[in-house]
Design a protein that fits this description.
Distance between the termini of chain A: 57 Å
Mean pLDDT of chain A: 83
CATH superfamily of the largest domain in chain A: Bordetella uptake gene, domain 1
Shape of chain B: flat
Largest sheet of chain A: 10 strands, mixed
Number of domains of chain B: 2
Distance between the termini of chain B: 57 Å
Organism (chain C): Gracilibacillus orientalis
Shape of chain A: globular
Number of strands of chain A: 10
InterPro entries (chain C): DUF112_TM
Radius of gyration of chain A: 24 Å
Largest interface: B-C, 69 and 59 residues
Structural class of chain B: mainly alpha
Oligomer: heterotrimer
Order of helices and strands of chain B: HHHHHH
Helix content of chain B: over 70%
Structural class of chain A: alpha/beta
Protein name (chain C): Putative tricarboxylic transport membrane protein
Mean pLDDT of chain B: 87
Number of strands of chain B: 0
Strand content of chain A: 15-25%
Chains: A alpha/beta, B mainly alpha, C mainly alpha
CATH architecture of the largest domain in chain A: 3-Layer(aba) Sandwich
Keywords (chain C): Membrane, Transmembrane, Transmembrane helix
Number of domains of chain A: 2
Radius of gyration of chain B: 24 Å
Helix content of chain A: 40-55%
CATH topology of the largest domain in chain A: D-Maltodextrin-Binding Protein, domain 2
Number of helices of chain A: 11
Keywords (chain B): Membrane, Transmembrane, Transmembrane helix
Number of helices of chain B: 6
Chain lengths: 348, 152, 497
Amino acid sequence: MKKLLALSIFLLMLLFLAACGGEDTLSNDDNANDEDTKENSGEDNGGWTPSESIEMVAPAGAGGGWDTTARMSAQALTEESMIDQDMGVVNKEGAGGAIGWAYMAEQEGSNHDLFVSSSPILLVPLNGQSEYGHEDFTPIANVIADYGAFAVAEDAKWDNLNELFEDMKEDPQSVTIVGTSAPGSMDHIQFVRFAKAAGVDITKIKYVSAPDAGGVTQVLNGSADVFSTGVAEVAEQVRADKLKVLAVTSEERLDGEVLSTFPTAKEQGIDETFVNWRGFFGPKDMDPAAVEYYENKFKELSDSEAFADVRSNYGWNEMYMGSEEYKQFLDEEKENLKSILEELGLLE
Amino acid sequence: MLQGVNRKIGLILAILSIGYLYMSYQLPTYSYIPVDADAVPKTLGWVLLVLSVALIFSKDNDSEEQKAKRRIPKTDVKALLGVVALLLIYIMLFETLGFIIMTVLFVYFCSWFLGYKSHIVNAIVSIVFPVAIYSIFVFMLQIKLPQGILPF
Amino acid sequence: MGAIEGILTGFEVAFSWEGILFVLLGVFVGTFIGMLPGLGPISAIAIMIPITYGMDPTLALVMMAGVYYGAVFGGSTSSILLNAPGISGTVASSFDGYPMAQQGKAGKALAIAAISSFAGGTISVVLLMIFAPMLASVAISFGPPAYFALMLLGLTAIASLSEGSTIKALISAVVGFMIATIGIDPQTGTGRFTFGSMNLLDGIDFLVIALGLFAIAEVCYLVMNRHKSSAGSGKEIGSLKLSKDDAKEMSGPVGRQSLLGFILGILPGAGATIASFISYIAEKRIAKKPEEFGKGSVKGLAAPEASNNAATSGAFVPLLSLGIPGSGTTAVMLGAFLVLGLEPGPMLMGDHPEVFWGIIASMYIGNIFLLVLNLPLIPYIARILTIPRPLLISLVLMFSLIGVYAISFSVFDLYLLLAFGVIGFLMRMFAFPAPPFILAFILGGMMEQSFRQSMTISNGSISIMFENNISLVLIILSVLSFSFPIAKSIWSKKKVS
């Protein structure tokens, strides 16, 4: 009897709370709307400003590229008092970003939620693993560019990209490419793009995915031949004469003592580039005034000295694009990726 | 009766393995890879099927002590189901009502339900622990837990 | 700069008052994080990165390293007391730690864990200091075939992990392996067995399974015995006293498994969790009384505890000497290096000897601090078990729920936890052993991937497995390990007849 009593009181209290909770959240929303309308009315004078703390979502776990970008920019923005409101970073980890994007899709119309993303927001939906793609959000600004590199062991027989691709044209099965992520994602696609431009049969490329730094290990011990990855991942190995870089994916050579020694594919006669851009997005239907506000803030961030330090520590490059330009860039990029995935038979 | 136990479990496992096999055979295949995504699942499915058939025909060699574990008194069944029900409610309302409220209520009522009679101690424990953990996560470590309907 | 000079610089940094302060801070935060549900070293270090921005890099890294091994040190507490591991590296510690605590020897169990962890940590730091530069080549010597063979060797032990019906042990293992196949397959990018749910694309987290099968299933039994008094009386329970025999029993496994754990820790991808399991099995295999394992054996607790701490130090070999992060935690630490303006890689030792050797030297102090911090607390922490059963049950449930929620912040995982709890309860009821399930889950995924990587590299030829010396030796060991128990049982039957 007692037990039943305990259970039923528990249930009753919950029902009561849930009812109160519903009202509470409603009234909160009302308040928020009130404030928004106030601001909107004041918009003619000074434009939109955030009225509450801003939530910055990293659609990945702590410590990765998205998380670092989110934390470092939030810190720079608030510490340099470019934005007066608090900025909290929230990790929505899982499914290569899809969990975070689904969460952001629920924030439709909010002006106080932002998130970080890069190429996967184009690739993951194309692979059929996310309902949401960049079209479902408001691109605000791109701030960072990373470039890919194709590295081989120091004693490998190839000295440049053309030698490698010559061998691959003869026998694609003789060369193993290794990357960190699965086929159809960045490491794979960036290599495929260059191989395609050089005329290799891309459907026959042997690609192995090896997480937990397996890629560099496998190239160092000779299990795999070519490591397709980001420039920063291999720079130190090159400096120590363990690896050599056949090509970087950027348009021009990169800055830096070691980085500037890496040849671009372009100068080797392969007309292709690949940028791993990284930027900020807002939910769908964000107030255009708010978009403009954030756009300006990210421009300020991108130009700031504090962020320049962050960039140089992480080996990131500056690449600013405003909302309009960004959106157009993303649309084009997606078409491009789509055709490659189609050819590989990876399109869902 | 005793052989019946293995037979029943074996049957359930066999059905599971057939379901798993069916799904394995639905997996898409790719031409560029020698051992495809479906190879290992298919193997596992068949192995489990063979093992569950073997289980159906095997004798129940469990010790008496082990067999005693299978007889659960009725009051205990009720208690177990009650805890499961509390857990389900907890999970369902966790994000709506927030970490603190749900956890406080859960700890208090779960202890009461299981026969803990000292209500004052119970109340203190069930408030102090969740609030302490919440503060550590949210204020010290800046890791958000669902705040629900509370303002902090 | 020679190695000796480097080591001296390292000690200078580590023994400066700031060095000592930051080590202390690091290991303190680490133990605490390890004891808390759901928080592992990865999130702790990631949170620290922005805070350490602009700090002296050596000190910041010394502190983060402290958080890392401190968390592995502290993680065993809840495994032993509540059967609810806080981090995945200490799951194996619950196999014998929890039964021991239930026999009223919680204090002793915690003391064994602390001392084994300390010994494992310290032995491996000595190895790290002497061999780090040389071991770099070991770290990269394992290709996919060698990883496959290593996982195979681990799996052959399934039969020895359990008593009773072999068929049931095998079924457990196969189902565990099946669970490991859920999620995106890295080699093709296909989602497998996800039922169209986004929540399953990343597979199921190891801790969800461990907490479900162990903690929640155990709670079911506690519920059935809720009116019995708690395990042991207040005084006895907190007693740290180890007899001479205990010390003698521990010394063997601690020595052996520190070495094995360290070596496994060096290999990228293996890490503390796999090391602790393999050490547990290895120790059970060579034990004179393997039947004591799983029932509160001193050896069964000392082995995984020494091993997981040693593996943690081992993980610093590829990180510091090659700039290769072999696990999630070391990958986050690699990020920390970058923020602090250092470039981790093969040149680190030459360019920044004070960082390289400073971190290593600080681990000596860190391990001593951990022991000194933990031992006096044991009598108090052990009293958790004197809490009346109903209250304890609620708190264990709370601990498990937060533990799972904090991994992924998804309610879906809470349902999974409950589901695995029910499965764990049924498995016990019908005598299906859980350790083979867990073992096949952690080794199976990696075994499949390395097998398929090998096959892709060799264009489908199985001979790649025998071309490399390491994998050849490991495969021969697997065959022996598999056939030995069978041969033994045939042998003993012959004797009888």
